[in-house]
């Protein structure tokens, strides 16, 4: 949770510092958006490395090394700020953070059986919400009182402190894959077993990926542009905008813990996970998309903030529930690799979102109209993803299919 909190704090950092960076470096909205998109491009590429890293190194040392890397990536902007340095540092940051999400979930799932993974997943995902509730206001204060460089330095120090705590406190749980310390999955007699990667071809994986991709595109825009929308588009002060950044996350916390807790209880009582790992996240994402589509029709700033908060908060439940669905359909020795592919392709939505939003804002006369239009477009994409998930995500069915393919292999 702490690592995910810091992870999202680094993502939030660009959104909090976007306006001061534009003013000091003379950047356009498109350039800030490009820096955000470069980060998510590198994060997508890095996500595909989760499987190989999980095979080559113990989870403890893999995550510790990645955290050191992304903490140090923040330093160049402090000493030599420019547009080129901004893009380069976000590129490296995304590359180091890319594999971390799948490895974080794999590490957490090693302590929980399959039927009780939604709530632990929600706890991890809640750290993303908590970063906007707890870290964003602190970063906003640092930026307003001491300049944006102080916020970059603070996140660097926090990341390095976490590494010391992690290396001294964490160990692999009883539900981890046998190869988590670098060993391959083996059958009795010591022979290496060939396993099928059929999980990534199932409707659950593909439909869940469509939903997660559509929402993550929206998330990337929220992380990059929501404080600017509140400040420039709706007229709030810089400190108010940074503080209000956490409002959507308050709704997200209620949705995450409520649905995940009830979902795990339902599953232990024999209720099909199709309902709480397919129908519920699909419905939440549908409401999210509809709320974003309606933003240009709302003329009251407070109501706009409420609509964004409720819609985004309900949409957030797709992450822990769909991650749990993916973990249900794949063998445990493939968990890091399968989640790595899922999360890498999902995060590729961030390649498009921030830059597209910046281009829309630059092309429209009114900043308020530009931001609202950008969120409306992404809301329509979320609706498509939600409908896809509602129709396709069925973990029990696809788990049986994967097991049959594995036996055949």
Automatic annotation (TrEMBL):
Spans through the membrane: 29-49, 61-85, 123-144, 150-172, 205-225, 245-263, 275-298, 304-323, 335-357, 369-393
Keywords: Membrane, Transmembrane, Transmembrane helix
Membrane topology (UniProt): Multi-pass membrane protein
Residues annotated as domain Major facilitator superfamily (MFS) profile: 1-397
Subcellular location: Cell membrane
UniProt cross-references to InterPro entries, sorted A to Z: MFS, MFS_dom, MFS_Na/Anion_cotransporter, MFS_trans_sf
Protein name: MFS transporter
Species this protein is from: Streptomyces axinellae
